[in-house]
Design goal:
The complex is a heterodimer of chains A (148) and B (140). Chain A contains 3 helices and 5 strands. Chain A is of the alpha+beta class. Chain A has one domain: Roll (Thiol Ester Dehydrase, Chain A), CATH 3.10.129. In chain A, strand 4 and strand 5 form a beta hairpin. The N and C termini of chain B lie close together (12 Å). By secondary structure, chain B is an alpha+beta fold. Classes of the chains: A alpha+beta (148), B alpha+beta (140).
Chain lengths: 148, 140
């Protein structure tokens, strides 16, 4: 079933506030096998010019996965999640995400396409502080491989 | 210390980065990221959906790959844009040694605004697993 092109531009209510913690950043960096001290040591992060430890460039996936669930749960988005693979991912950082940030995620459907029977859904998630400062924009493209 | 823009030339190669991804790494990444998709830890389900075995999270591969850029740039906070396209799964066998990942990078463009584009080539056992992997770092 092809995705409805009218979905493009559909935006969802903002998420609850996500507070970025030092321990979560350390856990994520460890999972990437990355011991860079700016992820782990507040003093090293400050020496590099950051107010506190910062998160790896792909950390925003933690928030965008959660925020993307509102799209997954939208009954109008007719995509077969049993055949979905992650096609593309992009992060645009307006500034690094850091410990202590209180972030709100807003999901928007950016694009829908059907190519050779494969449905492609691109969701944009805008991450901003609760005061409205833009921090990061993520774009995730999911592909539902066409069935028989 | 951040790398100085004046020291960056188009065509420069980043140090090659090699690492291994094991099943334990997939479990750790699932917990840290919140991505508990079954194909990243359950061999039976992976095979049922037509995969040869359990595969790594695409974002684990992408996260490991960009380490080559953050280390080279000297400050992970310098990465202002990072995009990847997943072309082939990284198959992670349950044999204790897992899958090998090799990351090569090359400076593709240097802008007058201090933005440096690095193109990455990411392979596992010789196969290219990301058909596009491109980071932009802001240097001064």
């Amino acid at each position: 079933m092809a995705l409805d092109a009218g979905l493009v531009g559909r935006s969802y209510p903002p998420s609850a506030v996500y507070e970025v913690g030092r321990e979560k950043i350390a856990e994520f960096a460890a999972a990437l096998g990355d011991p860079d001290p700016v992820y782990l040591d507040p003093a090293a992060a400050r020496a590099a010019g950051h107010p506190d430890v910062i998160a790896p460039p792909t950390f925003a996936i933690v928030l965008s996965l959660g925020a993307g669930n509102v799209v997954v749960e939208d009954p109008d988005v007719a995509i077969d999640y049993s055949r979905v693979v992650h096609g593309e991912q992009r992060f645009t950082h307006h500034r690094p995400i850091g410990a202590g940030d209180r972030l709100v995620a807003t999901a928007t459907i950016d694009a829908v396409r059907t190519v050779a029977g494969n449905d492609m859904l691109t969701t944009r998630v805008d991450l901003a502080t609760e005061d409205g400062e833009p921090v990061c924009t993520t774009r995730s493209m999911l592909v539902a491989r066409g069935g028989a | 210390m951040s790398r100085r823009l004046a020291d960056v030339e188009v065509g420069a190669e980043l140090p090659e980065q090699t690492s291994r991804v094991t099943r334990a790494d997939l479990v750790r990444y699932a917990g840290a990221s919140g991505d508990f998709n079954v194909i990243h830890w359950n061999e039976r389900v992976a095979r049922e959906v037509g995969l040869p075995d359990v595969i790594a999270h695409g974002m684990l591969t992408a996260g490991i790959a960009v380490r080559a850029v953050t280390r080279w740039a000297g400050d992970p906070g310098a990465v202002v844009d990072y995009q990847v396209r997943f072309s082939r799964p990284v198959v992670v066998p349950d044999d204790g040694s897992g899958a090998e990942l090799t990351v090569r990078g090359r400076v593709a463009a240097v802008g007058e605004d201090g933005r440096v584009r690095v193109d990455l080539t990411v392979t596992s056992n010789g196969d290219k697993v990301l058909s596009l992997a491109r980071a932009v770092v802001a240097l001064s």
